[in-house]
């Protein structure tokens, strides 16, 4: 066996044990669900028994997962660095699990626009959490105050705008693909319509 195979073998065994423990099941409970003996399961988890494909399929079903997830290799890119978007004053982190999703860190210094015509609406969903300060979210006809450590989630088809109250605020937002596109188009359009300095 190669080192990569040994590492995968060890990872699968650890994953089986971790999934069993997360369910709160004893060796006996999982063995009963998977229709294998308790000693066989113990030897699988401890590396004293060869992993057989048919047993992995049975264990995956018993653990309410798929064989693909059970044998999935670990990725080396656990930590991701932000991409700096200086044009929009943001840091962005694309989510590896779902390339359509983006995480954005933003610092807001002014209040939300008082002109309803400047509120945006577009397909998608947004989720945001205020890291510091207080944010004001205009959502349809509502004005919502979001304080530090509070979060908001909303469909972006509702006209919306966000700003700071009483000083700067920092927030972290998660945008699906449609919401991100809608905001980029809106920010680019605002820049194009600003008078030259």
From TrEMBL:
InterPro entries: Cro/C1-type_HTH, Cupin_2, Lambda_DNA-bd_dom_sf, RmlC-like_jellyroll, RmlC_Cupin_sf, TransReg_Diox_bact_type. The keyword Ribosomal protein does not apply. Residues 16-70 form the HTH cro/C1-type domain. PROSITE patterns: HTH_CROC1. CDD domains: cupin_XRE_C (cd02209), HTH_XRE (cd00093). One of its GO terms (molecular function) is DNA binding. The keyword DNA-binding applies. Keywords: DNA-binding. Gene3D superfamilies: Jelly Rolls, lambda repressor-like DNA-binding domains. GO terms for cellular component: cytosol. This is Transcriptional regulator.
